[in-house]
From TrEMBL:
InterPro entries found in the cross-reference section: AhpD-like, AhpD_core, CMD-like
Pfam family, one: CMD
Domain called Carboxymuconolactone decarboxylase-like: residue spans: 23-96
Residues spanning the signal sequence: none
Protein name (Swiss-Prot/TrEMBL): Carboxymuconolactone decarboxylase family protein
């Protein structure tokens, strides 16, 4: 598979991805647990069918010490016993936010309240922002058909 567009060769997307990376750095430095951040990025990428981001974030999570059992169960988190209640709330919020057009009214009050039981305002802001950023990455990568499989942890610095 070959990408339709090299996003790093075109000035506008290269610049945009630089802004996304800066946003990602801000979120990485937030109080939202790093393991939760990776789970969120993986789940949104799975929903959106973004092979590139799924490859990247599963490899990054494994490199950071995440277990293969948890990585294999992200897509089936509701039936899995390996996630904390806080992680489950973050994954549920990720799903509703990623699929925002599928439900009248967007994210339900119940899902928001469940997340708010586990995360303070700063963490919730980081979580919602993270979901938005990974969805933006996913949409660009899916549109240009960026191939998956060659990512190596740390290759983008």
């Amino acid at each position: 598979m070959e990408a339709r567009l090299d996003v790093f060769a075109v000035p506008v997307t290269r610049k945009l991805f630089g802004h996304f990376q800066a946003a990602g750095k801000t979120l990485t430095e937030s109080a939202l647990p790093h393991s939760t951040q990776e789970l969120v990025k993986i789940r949104a990428s799975q929903i959106n069918g973004c092979g590139y981001c799924t490859d990247m974030h599963t490899k990054d999570a494994a490199h950071a010490g995440e277990t293969s059992v948890r990585l294999h169960l992200v897509a089936a988190w509701r039936e899995a016993t390996v996630f904390t209640d806080a992680e489950r709330a973050a994954l549920e919020l990720t799903e509703e936010t990623t699929r925002i057009a599928d439900a009248a009214g967007g994210v339900s009050d119940e899902v928001w309240a469940n997340a708010a039981k586990h995360y303070d305002e700063e963490q919730l802001a980081a979580l919602v922002s993270l979901i938005a950023v990974i969805n933006a990455y996913n949409r660009i990568n899916v549109a240009v058909r960026r191939p998956a499989g060659d990512y190596e942890p740390g290759m983008f610095g």
